[in-house]
Every structure is written in structure tokens, then in C-alpha cells.
Amino acid sequence: AALFTETPHDMTAQAGEDVEMACSFRGSGSPSYSLEIQWWYVRNHKDWTDKQTWASSQLISPPEEPGKEATKISVVKVVGSNISHKLRLSRVKLEDEGTYECRVIDSSDGKARHHKVKAYLRVEAAGGPGHPQDTEL
User: Fold this and answer.
1) Where does the record place the Ig-like domain (predicted)?
2) How many distinct structural domains can be found in the chain?
3) Which of 58, 75, 104, 116 is the most core-located residue (most Cβ within 10 A)?
């Protein structure tokens, strides 16, 4: 079955830090078909209450709900059955806080299926109150 083999995690960063989010996906079909991975930034999800349901409902159709303020950050396409792409954010700013979404378009059987996972990035002002567990490298 098609599935995410690595998903991004919610994280907290200090302003000015570099952040990395990983997303890997394994398709279900034979080895030579098209996979596309996209990173999106969604601004209006500060108050997400249904976090638990996001990862479990990975197969989403239709592809996107209208009205969300989302920005495509990057796209990578491969021919094969595995794809992975790390999103790297250098020297994050307070306005980088928000929801980051990894979308995979799996065209293994001739029709595109959309898969999504999301993670929330919280950015704290440099020198602000930090928690020891949030500063692990």
C-alpha cells in the first residue's frame, strides 16, 4: 500500500534558527511511474484542534479546500516508487510560524491520488522563554 515512510513533526524553533522538516513516501505500484512531492505553507491554522486526525486521514480527496491561504514552496518530481524531500528553512522569522504541509501526488495507476501530512512550526522570539525539551538538536 502507498504510505508515508517519514512525516514532518510539530516543532518549536527560536527566531534565527535553521529548521528542517522531512517527508518521505513509498508508492504502491510498479517501480516506474510518476510521483510528485510538494511543500505548502498554510497560514491560518494556529488554532488546530483536530491535530490527531490529520496524520490518520492521509488520503485526501478533493485535493484542496478552497479559501485556505496556502503558498506552494517547492515541488520535486521523480519516476519511481519512492520519493523524499526535506524542507529546509534558514534563519526562521516569527512570520514563518504556521502549518507546513507535505503533499504527494501518486500517479501509479493512471489517476492522480493526493496524500497529505502536516506539521506546525512555532517560532519564538530569540531569547524568549525556552523549554529544554524544545532545544534538542
Assistant:
1) 2-118
2) 1
3) 104
